[in-house]
Design goal:
This protein has 382 residues and is an alpha/beta fold. It contains 14 helices and twelve strands. Helix 6 links the parallel strand 4 and strand 5. Bound molecules: 2-acetamido-2-deoxy-beta-D-glucopyranose (4 copies). This is Peptide-O-fucosyltransferase.
Length: 382
Amino acid sequence: MATKKSLCWYVSMVSIIISMVVWNSKPFITESISRNPVDIRNAMSHVKKENSQNVLPILNKQKKINEKYLVYLCDEKRDCGGWGDRQRGIVSLFILSLVWKRTLKILISTPCDIKPYYKPTKEYNWIFTEEELKRLRGKRNKTLDFMGIDEPLFDINLNSSEIADVLYIRTNCYHFLPIAQKYAKFLPAYLKNKGRASVFRESWNRIMIPTDKVLSEVMKIESSGVINSDAKKSGKELVCAHLRTGLTENLYYDYSGFPPVAVTKLWNYIDGHFHNKSRIFVATDHLGIRKSAISKYGTRYIGSYASNVHPDSMRSNLTLACRSQESAYVDQLMLSKCDVLIYYRKSGFSIHASYLKTEWRNIYSIMKNGKSTFSLEEAHYN
Ligand SMILES: *[C@@H]1O[C@H](CO)[C@@H](O)[C@H](O)[C@H]1NC(C)=O
Ligand SMILES: *[C@@H]1O[C@H](CO)[C@@H](O)[C@H](O)[C@H]1NC(C)=O
Ligand SMILES: *[C@@H]1O[C@H](CO)[C@@H](O)[C@H](O)[C@H]1NC(C)=O
Ligand SMILES: *[C@@H]1O[C@H](CO)[C@@H](O)[C@H](O)[C@H]1NC(C)=O
């Protein structure tokens, strides 16, 4: 996870974003209005269509002559943070790879290889092929560590002849938006003049596709329980929350997570605002909160049942690591498919679930407010 310093910074940054409520938002959501289990794939095919209309494929061919690489690296040598940190690092390097015309590669080998869970798109094959690795043997490589320090990424000059052909970077970059803004003129239209949520979603969906293994788990959860037709008509049939307390982990910093005692207040909010036969999905790292949700909602509760362990703290047990990673991927995708999403504003995992939400409406953010309660507000993205 991030250092204390960058985390504090992050909190203030997130509050700024949240307070920048943008009402004249462009209705991106109209591009993916269908809500069925293949939503993710529909979103992909939209992306593909748009890509084939622009010049990217041509550029890709030209690049092969003297191809250089920018590689997101997460290996056993150092911590790389939770899934939220990793997602930010990947998105940041994707943006920089477009600016500097380098081929993006992604290496996540710890605690469990990412490839069984996420696969590349046609446009951006981020998996090193055997042929590429063979070709790269004689090339210069270098590894840079930018965990918790983003500044170097702003000013890095990848045009410089000094810089290695294969540049590995470890980063959990919070500042991918300022980077996109700084280099806007080098970026495609879909990343120009966009907010943080758009830059994230547009980037992410262009590179990362969940595998069938993950999608089938998501679909299983999504179709479980009883879907009430009146609740469905309300448009808010599936109500989801991500409540990260940070209390069950070996955290190296003071994480101000959701206070478990405040959970009754949240159930009251859900009761007061959504249909009383809606289904409830709650992803949390706190067993007490999960038990409370199960006893409160009974058969309306459809998950999550996943254990929630921080990836950097389970490197010693591969079975546990892979199982836990898979359920984190599944839970986040599940959260992104709900009609209503209540997310925790201090968790990158949670925030990214909201950015990836199929439709950008009915999104609420919550934030700890004192020891035992929280504040809640509606979020608006563009
Ligand atoms: C980087 O270059 C060194 C020296 O040529 C080589 O030993 C090493 O295997 C390379 N590492 C990677 C990850 O390509
Ligand atoms: C990198 O160099 C190329 C070729 O000189 C130039 O066209 C491009 O604008 C430079 N990129 C950046 C981000 O400065
Ligand atoms: C659910 O809401 C309906 C309509 O408002 C009401 O008639 C019903 O009693 C409620 N059911 C429960 C279990 O609260
Ligand atoms: C690894 O985790 C699994 C699942 O929690 C557990 O069953 C197993 O005993 C653990 N192995 C070791 C060596 O701790």
